[in-house]
């Protein structure tokens, strides 16, 4: 995506990414984590705020740092980096709340044309998977890199 | 300038490796999310659209 993004740092295996959100509330450290699920090759994308004092991660906090678009674009950038390293990986994402899942959907919808140039995107609805459509509410999303 | 513009257009970002993040790789940082994802996979299963193509 041609949107502004934050610089990224990652672990050696590119399973954990970190970036710093800069907004009206100051600097907020964010972690993006690709966690292996019970199914081989399928990873759960999770992200949240890192408390620098305790080292704890909070995935429910609403930072309201006024940069949600840049944050979302940076998270998408981690999907590119992760699937560059692991091209056969499938990535599942859902929000910690319905509102956040809706935010993800809006983010995917907004850049659907661009995203689908590089990824196949499915939406989870009624206990099934369907090709992602912008105007439908989903419970989660599954993406994989186009080969 | 040209390089700066090129960097802006890149889809795959330049990522700096920070070994201090390695410690998070094997940690389950978001256990509820992982549990939720595993429960969903058990219930919904893998997408037929993709698994059929892979057979």
What does this structure look like?
- The complex is a heterodimer of chains A (147) and B (55).
- Chain A has 147 residues and is α+β, with helices and mostly antiparallel strands.
- Chain A has one domain (9-145).
- Chain A has 3 helices and 9 strands, in the order βββββαβααβββ.
- In chain A, a hairpin with a 2-residue loop joins β2 and β3.
- Chain A is globular.
- The model of chain A has no long low-confidence stretch (mean pLDDT 89).
- Chain B is mainly alpha-helical and 55 residues long.
- Chain B has one domain (2-54).
- Chain B has helices spanning 2-9, 22-25, 31-44, 48-54, and one strand at residues 15-17.
- The model of chain B has no long low-confidence stretch (mean pLDDT 82).
- Classes of the chains: A alpha+beta (147), B mainly alpha (55).
- β1 (8-10) of chain A pairs parallel with β1 (15-17) of chain B, so a sheet runs across the interface.
In short:
Chain A has 147 residues and is an alpha+beta fold. Chain A has helices at 68-85, 98-110, 112-118, and strands spanning 8-10, 16-23, 26-36, 42-50, 57-58, 90-93, 119-125, 128-131, 140-145.
């Amino acid at each position: 995506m041609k949107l502004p993004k934050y610089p990224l740092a990652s672990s050696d295996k590119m399973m954990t990414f970190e970036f710093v959100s800069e907004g009206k509330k100051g600097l907020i450290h964010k972690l993006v984590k690709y966690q292996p699920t019970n199914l081989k090759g399928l990873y759960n994308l999770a992200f949240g705020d890192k408390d620098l004092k305790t080292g704890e991660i909070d995935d429910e906090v609403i930072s309201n740092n006024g940069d949600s678009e840049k944050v979302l674009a940076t998270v998408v950038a981690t999907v590119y980096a992760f699937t560059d390293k692991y091209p056969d990986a499938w990535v599942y994402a859902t929000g910690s709340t319905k509102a956040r899942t809706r935010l993800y959907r809006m983010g995917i919808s907004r850049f659907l044309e661009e995203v689908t140039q590089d990824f196949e995107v499915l939406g989870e609805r009624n206990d099934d998977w369907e090709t992602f459509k912008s105007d439908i509410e989903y419970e989660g999303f599954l993406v994989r890199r186009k080969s | 300038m040209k390089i700066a513009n090129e960097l802006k257009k890149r889809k795959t970002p330049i990522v700096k490796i920070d070994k201090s993040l390695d410690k998070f790789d094997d940690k389950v940082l978001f256990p509820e999310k992982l549990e939720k994802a595993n429960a969903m996979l058990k219930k919904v299963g893998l997408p037929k659209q993709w698994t059929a193509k892979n057979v």
